[in-house]
Amino acid sequence: MATMLIMFMLALYSDISYAATYKVGDAAGWSFHVDNWPNGKHFVAGDTLVFSYAVGAHNVVLVNQAGYDGCSTPPGSAVHTSGNDQIQLVKGMNYFICNFPGHCEGGMKIAVNAA
C-alpha cells in the first residue's frame, strides 16, 4: 500500500509544472538583435518574461503576428514603458516588438511559443 501511495505521489508531482522567469536577452537585456533569443528555450503558459532596458530608450509592445512580421503596432496593442516590464506568457504564440522607429527592424522583436 505504501509503495502505491509513493508511486501515486510521484506521478502527481511529475505532472505539476512551475512557471519560470526569463530575462529577455539574458545579460544584454531587451536590445537590438535579440530576435533569436528564444531559440532552444522551452516556454509554457504562465512563464514570465522580464524586459530590461533604459527607460525612454525602448518599449515593449504586445502585437499579433501581422504586427510582428511587419514591425507595426496594431490599434489597441498593449505598450509597456517601465524599463523592467514583466509579462506573463499565454498558451500559443506571443509576439513582442519595440515600436521605436527602426528598432523592430533592427531585431528588437521576439516570437515565443508557450506550450
TrEMBL record:
Protein known as: Phytocyanin domain-containing protein
InterPro entries, per database record: BlueCu_1_BS, Cupredoxin, Phytocyanin-like, Phytocyanin_dom, Plantacyanin
Statement: the UniProt record of this protein carries the keyword Metal-binding: yes
Residues annotated as signal peptide: 1-19
Domain Phytocyanin: 20-115
Keyword Zinc listed: no
Organism: Stylosanthes scabra
Record keywords, A-Z: Copper, Metal-binding, Signal
UniProt cross-references to SUPFAM superfamilies, sorted A to Z: Cupredoxins
Bilayer-crossing regions: none
